[in-house]
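From the shared-data thread, chain only:
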Amino acid sequence: MRIAILGSGSLGSLYAALLSQVEDVELLIHGRGSHGAHMAANGLQLEGLETIFLSNAEVFFSLEEVGIPSEYLGTIDFALLTGKAGQTTYLAGLAHQLLSEQGMALCLSNGLGHAEKCIEILGPQRVFAATSTHGAWRPSPGCVNWAGKGKTVLGSLPGGPGEIEAKPLLEVFLAAGLEPSWSSDGLAALWNKVLLNIAINPIAALAGVENGALLSPDLFSSAFSTMLEGAAVARMERVILPDDAELEQQLRQVITATSTNICSMLQDIRAGRNTEISVLNQAIVTRGERAGIATPLNQMLVSMVTALHVE
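Structure, as tokens:
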């Protein structure tokens, strides 16, 4: 099986390292910037919950700045899009070139709207819904820390492939230790992940803390209240969600499982990069306004995080 990991930042690099340990899996890992350049020159080091070194003799590392050799075009069975929000359109276009005739794609990026962009470029018959709650961060270029073990959920979208088509990839994910499961309601799975992201990422980023600090009563109350605003918007859009008590339990479980993780939004702020607030809390605010639902906590977090963006 040929798998392309497109946009290999923290999460993509984690998936690359773990998938590299599965027999009969051939990887193409596409990155950019100093992290991508370091991987291409020196390989990838995984630390934290597991230690793996992936050399550039074992897999092919490609760079956005250089491009992908033509011999890989049309040969990929599954493309995993793991880049930042602003990369989705570019990475979906790259997947369109790389995928074989029967190849399929999934997007693990945070936020709302990614699946729709992939469907526009690739067609609904080639796109799975997908989410991940694994925690990863980059201490240095070429190195990724697996800070929290989570789950990978694949699901079906209207007009999209089903569990039978996903089975080979689910088996590979299981062998890699990525804790996969299947959801017949991919839209609900996407929203469940978004609700966790809007609750955890901006608060941890603004407080400058690891995820586990959000278990303190005051911070957890703020995180859960933010989550409930998003849940109200989702339910207005007729998304089927667990009840509030189960949402609270899920939030507590994910924070506990990723307690030592430095969330991607905090990493971005520390590195002077723009964050993904536009596809997380801002998306909740926008959809809430359209539905006539007030989302003041999400709006406040958007304003505060946006004020930290680099001009």
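The chain has eleven helices and twelve strands.
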